Amino acid sequence: MSGEGELHADLSDVATSTLERLRAALAQQQLKAPLTRAALLAFGITQQLEALEAALSGHSALACMSVLDVALAERRRARRPEPELVWTGPERRHSTARDTAVVLRALFESATSQVILAGFSFEKGSTVLAPLHRVMVERALDVRFFVHVEQVQSASVDGPAHAAREVAEFLRKAWVHPTTWRRRFSNSAVEERMLPNVG
C-alpha cells in the first residue's frame, strides 16, 4: 500500500534541459550515484527535487542514465515539429527560408486523409497546386481551401452569388483542372468565406 509520504516518480514537469544536464553529469562522473538531494542542490538543481529523488535516488549511475534516456526519448518522439519560415521570393542573399513550392509538395505528398489550405493570394497556383491535384487523383483526400473573397460594396449585391463567382475565378486561375473539381473530387469541398454586406 502507498504511504502518505511516498514520492511519485513523475518527471513530466522536470525541464528537458535539467534532464539532459543530469544525464551528462552522470555519464562524465561529475555526479556520483546514488543521487541525493544534497548532491542535486550542490549541482545547481533547485526545482522539482522531489520528482527527481523519487525517480533516481537509490539507483546506480547506469540505472539513472537509463531512466533519463527513456524520459528524453519520449519527449523527442512527442515533440511537435517546429514552425519554419517559407518564402515565395524574391530570395535575399543568405536567406534560410525554404521555397514554398518545395515545402508544399512535400506536405501534399505526405497527406493521408485531409489537406486544409488557406491563403490570401495563390500566385502560380496551377503550378504550386499541381502536386496536390496528383495526390487527389491517386487517393481519396478531404481537401478544403480557405480563399480570400473580395468584400461586396453594396447591400444590393447577392452575397452567395458573389462568393460563387469569386471561388470560380480562384479555381480558373489557381487550380490545375478547374472543371474537374466538383465532378471528380466529390469528397472535397471549397469553404467559401466572405465579409458581411455593406449596409
Question: How is this fold's topology laid out?
Answer:
Elements lengths: L15 H12 L9 H6 L6 H8 L4 H18 L7 E2 L10 E2 H11 L3 E6 L5 H4 L1 H9 L3 E6 L11 H16 L6 H4 L4 E3 L8
Parallel strand pairs: 1-2, 3-4, 4-5
Helix pairs in contact: 1-4
Features:
elongated, disordered C terminus, two-stranded parallel sheet, 199 residues, single chain, 44% helix, 2 domains, three-stranded parallel beta sheet, mainly alpha
Write the H/E string, N to C.
Answer: HHHHEEHEHHEHHE
Number of DSSP E strands:
5
How many alpha or pi helices? 9
Helical amount among residues, as a percent range? 40-55%
Write down the Rg.
28 Å
Structural class: mainly alpha
Per DSSP, what share of the residues sits in E-state strands of 2 or more residues? 5-15%
Overall domain count: 2
- Cα distance, first to last residue? 71 Å
Mean pLDDT: 76
Poorly predicted tracts of residues: 1-5, 183-199
Major sheet: 3 strands, parallel
Q: Which oligomerization state do the chains in this entry correspond to?
A: single chain
In the sheet with the most strands, the strands line up as: 3-4-5
